[in-house]
UniProtKB/TrEMBL annotation:
<protein>
    <submittedName>
        <fullName>Uncharacterized protein</fullName>
    </submittedName>
</protein>
């Protein structure tokens, strides 16, 4: 009985810490575009969401583009990181590149 409880706790720990769909094994090639929020006279320059569909957003100003090789999980971490570190003024938009 103790072995079963231990096995269940171990499985919950292993599979419970990862979000479904976050692949941290397979590396992909991504085209990464960096955007900055537009400054408005009536308010701060911020994105109100880290939604990657910023190309149609009128408040998004394109800054740079690069190609990176990352796992799906690392891509999500970088996307969250730049959004939070910049005070919600910059975001990355990723597109998977087929080789």
């Amino acid at each position: 009985m103790t072995k079963n409880v231990f096995a269940v706790m171990l499985l919950v720990t292993i599979f419970g810490c990862k979000k479904p769909g976050d692949d941290d094994i397979t590396a992909y090639r991504w085209k990464r575009d960096l955007y900055r929020a537009r400054v408005h006279s009536e308010g701060p320059a911020v994105f109100y969401s880290k939604d990657p569909n910023v190309s149609g957003n009128q408040d998004a100003i394109f800054l740079s583009s690069s190609f990176v090789i990352l796992t799906e999980h690392r891509k999500n971490i970088q996307q969250d990181s730049i959004y939070n570190a910049s005070g919600r003024t910059q975001i990355y938009k990723y597109e998977k590149v087929d080789d």
